Amino acid sequence: MIASRRSVLTACGIVAATTVVALGMTTVAGGAPATATTVGGCTATVRVDSQWGSGANGGQITTFTVVNTASATAHRWTVSWPLADSQRIVSSWNTSIAATGGTATATNASYNGVLAPGASTTFGVQLAGPTSTPTPSCTNDAAPPTTVSPPSGADVTVQEADNQRTVTLFVGQTLGVALAADYLPPTVTGGALSPLSSSGGYPTGQPLAATFRAVTPGTADLTTRTDHACRYATPPCALPAVLWTLHVSVIELPPTGTGQTVVVTAPDNQRDLTLRVGDTLVVSLASNYLPPTVTPAGVVVAREVTGGYPTGQPLVASYLATAPGRVDVATITDNVCRHAPTPCPSPQVRWVVHLTVTA
Questions:
Q1: Model-level pTM?
Q2: CBM2 domain: which residues (predicted)?
Q3: Cystine design at 74: which of 134, 140, 171, 344 (Cβ 3.0–4.6 Å)?
Q4: Average pLDDT for consecutive 10-residue bins of the chain (359 residues)?
């Protein structure tokens, strides 16, 4: 019996600002700052202090606030944002700044790069040209590892992008959870899953890797959230927790008739298999695969096909071997952007197993 495994499933010092003399100058100090997404161990928010003019004659002064959201002390940080068309940097303070290819990049000065967890600093920029609120992103050297390795050997692996999704498993399959270091170990609600192992996660500073086994038909929810050391400081930081939930449905393997059940997954691509009449073939692939085609007909019969593109759910298809012969069970990946008015250049990945059925 073949039961292959799979894993499915970013000049130092102060520079005096140029004096601004322009008609129609608007002061917007104290307005609500725009907040960047928390990535790379820090956040950057920007407040537009004043704006004047429009188009090429416009300009603005902005203040950026950098907060270390990691659980370790940062020693340097970088903030970047796309410049509007024809927008340029006039001057800056408390940072070293450069613009290349339409992107502005600000780095810490020698005296404001060290930030304890939850600590913050500010820098300012004067921009000329069209007025628009920058949308910054931030990274620092205290960020947890950005590459999360899935647990080895899991039949199905889920990551942060799978938040709020539903995954279907067969009884006996294993589920791997791979999340960033600021997530707590997941908790299980429901009896369909049993914990097998867990490592990393907050407060270890290491990526979170956990595995679970599907033990009985039913449902279960995996839940966790992010946490940060600065939330326990005095005073605590205002960094919000990010919630993550996975819904799991566990089902029995399809009836196998009189023979064995063979489960094939992504690594079995191009494999030659031999089954006997009465055996069951189960194809388990990621959600971006189309339902398989069977060529020629009459050797195996589809019993159940669920998920696959465009449902957003993992593809699970089962076939009963009914007659001797040779047959290919094949499918291909698809992507919604390929069907847009201007299709994206997304390549398609073909998957096939060559099946021989004997009496």
A1: 0.44
A2: 35-148
A3: 140
A4: 34 31 35 48 91 89 92 84 88 88 85 89 94 88 59 75 81 85 90 89 85 88 87 75 88 64 89 89 90 85 84 86 89 87 84 92
